[in-house]
Amino acid sequence: MRVLLDCRMSSWSGVGRYTRSLARALARRSDIDLVQLVRRGDEPPADAPTLRATGSPLSPWGASSFGAAVAAVRPHVTHCAHFPTPFPVDYPLVVTLHDVSPLMVPGVMPNALKRGVYRSMTKRAVRFADRIITPSEHTAADIARLFPASTGKTTVVPLAADDFASGPVGTLPGWLAGTPYVFSMGNTKPHKDIPTLLRAFASIASEHPSVMLVLAGVDPGGYVRSVLGDTDVAHRVRFTGALDDSTLRALYVNASAFVFPSAYEGFGLPPLEAMALGTPVVCSDAASLPEVVGCAALSFAAGDIQALADALRLILTDGSVRDRLAGAGRGRAALFSWDRTAELTVSVYEQAVGCR
User: Fold this and answer.
1) 23 with 37: CB under 8 angstroms?
2) pLDDT digits (tens, 9 = 90+) for 82-123
């Protein structure tokens, strides 16, 4: 089966990790003739034939360039790894919709014009897709509520972390060496709910005076102080700055715990990455996250500062809890693999071909 995979967003963060991992898993299969579409200047994710596209994936010119690539390849299936679709649509089309957070969570996309474009492009994707892939049952349900035309088209195909976890583990930043810390992602969008984590950390900070809170990513400037004020605790919270994967793995592996307070996720890959690397996970019970972590994390009600503080207190003081969660997490992560994701994705391709 000849498959054209849209990899124009493979350099992005979440969507990019999905695209790169799926492309490599598909390229390993003998039943798939993979062709990748990438933007000029980007590295192809997999060792497979590649076409170059012009224009932003989010623009009309990008859609036309995508359409021209489809016409040149004449694939059995075109797979959009995100909501942008080709123009025109002349071949069986599969679209992955990772989440609909801009339409579900106020503040994720505050610009009304951008939100309208997002809604319009997602609606088009739902309309023209022969099959839709979502990473979780929760996301599938949200899409069905917002876009009834998705009914009967959607298949849940979970993501995985085995390829990320198998990579080399780098070294910790020098400023962190020898310091105990709790680790989290540093995305400050509203649905990630970093304020709940900051306040929970502040409530247990005096009990653990040597522990830092480390947030992966670039410091937006003044964010921590806007929540905690100019306090001693605020000075124990630090953003890492930009990270490569080997350093990110080191931050997971050496953390006392990984905490994920998000109030909305289409899937939630970071907790699975942490579990795959044997790091104890504390995770909210919101949206799709219970589908990912199962019973292998300490869960708390999203937004509940006291419940998160209690979970942090337990995991920092009880080594047997940390050991139990580390083992349970590895077992949970082992249930997910990119080869399995690719296998399920190919089944969706076959269904899409059968729709025409």
Assistant:
1) no
2) 999 999 999 999 999 999 999 999 889 999 999 999 999 999
User: Could you write out the DSSP letters of every residue in 181-235?
Assistant: EEEEE---SGGG-HHHHHHHHHHHGGGSTT-EEEEEB---SSHHHHHH-S-TTGG
How many Å apart are CA 275 and CA 271, to the nearest integer? 6
Q: Which residue has the tokens 């003998």?
A: 30
Q: Which helix (H) or strand (E) holds 132?
A: strand 131-134
**231-249 mean pLDDT:** 96
The two structure tokens encoding residue 278: 């044997």
Beta-carbon count within 10 A of 316 CB: 19
Buried b (16+ CB within 10 A) or exposed e, 278-310: bbbbbbbebbbbbbbbeebbbbbebebbebbbb
Q: Is the pLDDT of residue 161 over 80?
A: yes
pTM: 0.95
What dihedral do alpha carbons 70, 76, 81, 85 form, nearest 10°? Answer: 40
> What domains does the chain contain, in order, with CATH numbers?
2-159+337-355 (3.40.50.2000), 164-333 (3.40.50.2000)
Helix H or strand E segment including 102: helix 101-104
The two tokens of residue 167 are: 């990579």
In the block, tokens 């003739």 appear at 33
| DSSP category for residue 35 | E
Residue 118 φ/ψ region, left for φ over 0, alpha for ψ in the -120 to 50 degree band, beta for the rest: alpha
Going edge to edge, which strands form the sheet with 281-284? 237-239, 212-216, 181-185, 257-260, 281-284, 298-300
Task: Round to whole Å and give the CA distance between 243 and 233.
Answer: 24
d(CA 192, CA 213): 16
pLDDT at 14: 86
The pLDDT tens digits for 303-352 are: 999 999 999 999 999 999 999 999 999 999 999 999 999 999 999 999 99
CA neighbor of 5 nearest in space, from 265, 348, 354, 244: 348
Decide if 66 contacts 6 (C-beta within 8 A).
Answer: yes
> Quick one: tokens of 129?
């897709």
Three-state DSSP state, 256: coil
